[in-house]
Amino acid sequence: MLERAELRRSREQWKREVTAKCADCDFVSQHVFPHISPVVPKAAPYAWSLDIVRALSTGRVTLRYEISGFGTVYGKAYYDTCLGRNTYELLQRLWQNGFGPRSQNQVPQPLAFVAEGNLMLLQEVRGAPLTGVLWTAPLDQAVQSMRAAALWLARFHASDIPGLDVEPPCERMEIMKVADVLAKVAAKRREYAPMLVQLLRQLDVAAEQANPLPRLVPLHDQYRPAHVFVADGSVVVIDVEKIRLSDPAKDVARFVHTIKKLCFETGGGDTARADRLAEEFTREYASLAPENLENLPYFRAAYTLRAFAKALKSRKVKETERKNILECYRQEFERCLPESAKTLRAN
Amino acid sequence: MGILETTGIATSQPGGTAWAAPAGEKVSKEGLAQKAGPLISFEFARRHLAPLVNGPLSTPTSGFHAEIEQNTGTGRLTLRYVLNPETILHAKLYTDELGPRCYAVMKALWEDGFGAGSAFHVPEPIGFLVDYNLLVMRQAPGTCLAEALRGDPFMDLVEGSRNAAQWLSALHRSRLRLGTPEAEWVSLKLFNTSARLIKAAAAQPDQLDQIRDLLEQIEQRIHKMPRHRPLVQTHGRYHHDHVFVSSGITTVIDLDRSCPSDPGKDLAEFVHVLRLAAFKRGLDWRQVDDSTRTFLREYLNQMPEVAPGFSCHWAAFMFHDLLGQLKKDATRRKENWRELLDFSIREVHSALEVGP
Questions:
Q1: pLDDT tens, A131-189?
Q2: Predicted local distance difference test score (pLDDT) of residue A9
Q3: Whether A340 contacts chain B with CB within 8 A
Q4: Which CATH number do you get for residue A88?
Q5: What is the ipTM score, two decimals?
Q6: Are A61 and A15 spatial neighbours (Cβ–Cβ below 8 Å)?
Q7: What is the pTM of this model?
Q8: Which three-class secondary structure state does DSSP give residue B164?
Q9: Which of its termini does chain A have fewer beta carbons within 10 Å around, N or C?
Q10: Measured between CB atoms, which of A3, A168, A340 is closest to B222?
Q11: Residue B319 belongs to what domain range?
Q12: CB-based contacts of A202, cutoff 8 Å, min separation 6
């Protein structure tokens, strides 16, 4: 196994190499142009540009090719040697089975997989991500978008995708991911350790009350407003690459949590609106698949606890706002807990 | 007080008090000892215990004796009664809901392969006194395996470990399923480990990267566990000091935490606790390795499918132990802290080296 620091270095190196390769003229002519629609004539030299849309330390780089007069293609390069091809094949399967052009609920159209760069090419998605309507659009429009996002997710959870891996129970519960973040905070600010242990104990009580054997469905695992595009009555959801069979409540919890997080940390603090949008999303989903929400409180609590811990030490949070953000998360965490876990705090 | 013949659970009498603490409330060691005071009286034994065994009761001057045998602050306390020279009982006083459940498990096991006529026993459950939250059982015969660690020449660690493996494999092959199946993250103690992880990170921030690297290795090991593993009736606290060996019979006590779970958990707990105790006592390590090998070989010959669950639980439990050492600040460290820390690190790596 690569040690943590070594893995970090290896990914950084890969990122430099892959972005250089994807910007290479020959590579673009040979592997990208053929997939631009309408097709770019081979002979002529064309003006094109490449933007790095996203290149975090996750082992994935998102690129955008624009060829003047022809169109835009998105590329996603993968550090993991299998993930790119698997994702491409998965998207193809979804595109051809209920999430394609004839449906109102779609995934991006997969165009090609370029083995040489471990690069998947995707058609540009129309519309804007839901993050754009959360706080600024008229409330009615935002509510409709929430319902549309819930419908997409319920349909996705009901879909039958053969051959998916099952997310193991311990990973499904996210315990170690939460613990990892809490440990990092405790290492920097040891005075927070007793409080973090106490909150973790409360989460443990919530886990005791969760159903350990939930119904397993295809899980998007990154279901956030930023990944949901709404345009002309259609919903297109991107970042479909971590699909496994798991607890559907996780996707619902993540979406709701992200709305709250955006509100607490960047949305101007309109908590009433955030609550309403989260409620509309959850209610719509519950009307379609109520049996999937048994463990929603647990996962909402788990995601909230992780965000709370991150906010304790995040440099992105202004000191003047930190106290308020932390209090919002504390209240949200309390709301998600069962009564028995709240008693634990009182003791 | 009436005795229900079919269950052995003593019924509540008018005005009786259920001795269970309110949910979530902890009873202190001292508080529990105080509660146990009236229970070691001759009068209590005469009224409540003698009818359970239908035997003669010696008087306090002719051999009756009762005492608190163990009170370690777990919220449960063990009493020992000598009713007459032939009748020695143990009773466990509970402050939670574990008592009736443990009684039901013991009774079911005693009647289904772990009682008279078998080479593998649980202590014979005599009754459960609801009013006192008190589980009464006969004394387990034989010598405790823990005596081997204390140098008892009549208790051989390797042979005793073999007996322990045979008893455990008999339990795991039992058809009984009593209690709610345990979730994987509970059997692996992941929440407890996470709490220790936070404390260890706070106590040793400079070790954070190494701790997280180990955490990641444990995670990967858990990830590699086969998805379809056996789910059996487990003991729940399978330690060497719960195993009693007499000629031809092995008896195992303390089934408070028995439930359907991954059998690898019991194996890992036995190996981890035995080796740690042996290390602390400075035993000859070849003998400890021998007893570990004998225990595992004897068990896995019968149930080889448990091996992946064992290695994963062993690694997780040793990591839990390691964090327990790391979280101690300088004022709470014992003299042998460094040695224990090194031992835990070695054992985590040994466990991780065992194939999934």
A1: 999 998 999 999 999 999 999 999 999 999 988 999 999 999 999 999 999 999 999 99
A2: 87
A3: yes
A4: 3.30.200.20
A5: 0.87
A6: yes
A7: 0.88
A8: helix
A9: C
A10: A168
A11: 143-353
A12: A301, A333, A337, A341, A342, A344, A345
Distance from CA of B199 to the nearest CA of A (A): 6
Crossing angle, helix B190-203 and helix B208-224, to 10 degrees?
A: 160
Chain A: give the shortest CA distance to residue B183, in Å: 6
Across the interface, whether the CB atoms of A187 and B215 are under 8 A apart is answered no
Please state, in angstroms and rounded to a whole number, the distance separating the CA atoms of residues A165 and A237.
Answer: 21
User: In Å, how far from its chain's centre is CA A216?
Assistant: 19
Task: Quote the pLDDT of residue B91.
Answer: 96
Number of domains forming the structure of chain B: 2
Angstrom distance (rounded) from CA B135 to CA B76: 11
Sign of CA dihedral A242, A78, A124, A134: positive
Question: Token digits for A51?
Answer: 């933007």
Q: At residue A232, what is the residue type?
A: D
**How far out from the chain centre does Cα B171 lie?**
14
Round to whole Å and give the CA distance between A88 and A117: 13
Domain harbouring A320, CATH code: 3.90.1200.10
What are the pLDDT digits (tens) for A251-310? 999 999 999 999 999 866 689 999 999 999 999 999 999 999 999 999 999 999 999 999
**Do B200 and A204 count as a contact with CB atoms less than 8 A apart?**
no
Check if B232 contacts A (Cβ < 8 Å).
no
Q: In sequence order, what are the residues at sequence separation of 6 or more whose Cβ sits closer than 8 angstroms to the Cβ of residue B304? A: none
Summary mean pLDDT of chain B? 90
Q: Residue A121 belongs to what H/E stretch?
A: strand A119-123
Pairing, β A234-237 against β A228-231: antiparallel
Is A3 at the interface with chain B, CB within 8 A? yes
**In this structure, are B100 and B238 located in the same domain?**
no
The number of folded domains in chain A is: 2
Reading the block at residue B274, the tokens are 């035995």
Supply A285's token pair.
């989903």
